[in-house]
Amino acid sequence: MKTLQQYRYPLLLAVIVHVIFLTLVFIGLSTTTSQTAALARHMPKVKIVQAVAVDQTKVDAEIKRLRHQREHKRQLQLAHKRARRRELAKLTQQRQVEKLRLQKLKREQQKVLQQRRQAAKKLAQLKQQRLLMQKRQAAAKKRRQKLLAEQQLIKQASAEERQMQKQQHRQLQTVISHYKNLILAAIRQQWLLPLHVKQGAYATLMIKLAPGGTVLSVKIIHSSGDSALDRSARTAVFKASPLPVPKNTQVFQQFRQLQLKVKPEQNKVA
User: Fold this and answer.
1) Structurally, how many domains does the chain consist of?
2) Is-contact 172 251, C-beta < 8 A?
3) So what's the pLDDT on residue 155?
4) What is the CATH number of the domain that holds 172?
5) In whole angstroms, what is the distance from residue 252 CA to residue 258 CA?
């Protein structure tokens, strides 16, 4: 009895705990059952598949098939990736080739453009040189024409000067001849001829004159062969002083030393 009393309180406590546990389980089951019933009302009816026994060989074959299918799919994906990479590599290579081609084309275009610029520059230089040459040729032609014109003018002036000189010489000779005849006439008026003058005799005199016609000296440069005739001719010149001479100074220079050929029977200059 003593032993039963010792375990009385623990047993009582265990019973109370079990009762509480069972009460809670019952409440939970009730709640779950009601919820399950509610869900069952709202869910479609599903056929219950009865479990059957499966052959292990078929399972292994199916697993093997699934693995093979998965491996095949993986291989296809890898092949697709490799093909994609090859396509991308090919596309990249094509882009690189196209880039190089465009760069080469650009260099060629730049080279052609540079050549065109150089050709245009050279053409401009040639045009400039041609224009400069044309200007020089035009200037040279103009100088030649001017030189020819000047030469023509000089030639014409020379011809006119020669013509004028000839004309002046003729006029001077006319004036000289005129004044020589006047001088000879003046001498003849003062010339006293000696007796028995030889026919055809003449004397050549060199007369020096001062401006105004004054006789400075008379010299016999060719004797008549008759000394009396020579002296009479020389005396007649001094008596006729001053002789008629031109007033023009330049013309008078032709009379400073005047050479006269005098003949007793003629009153003219030879």
Assistant:
1) 1
2) yes
3) 87
4) 3.30.1150.10
5) 10
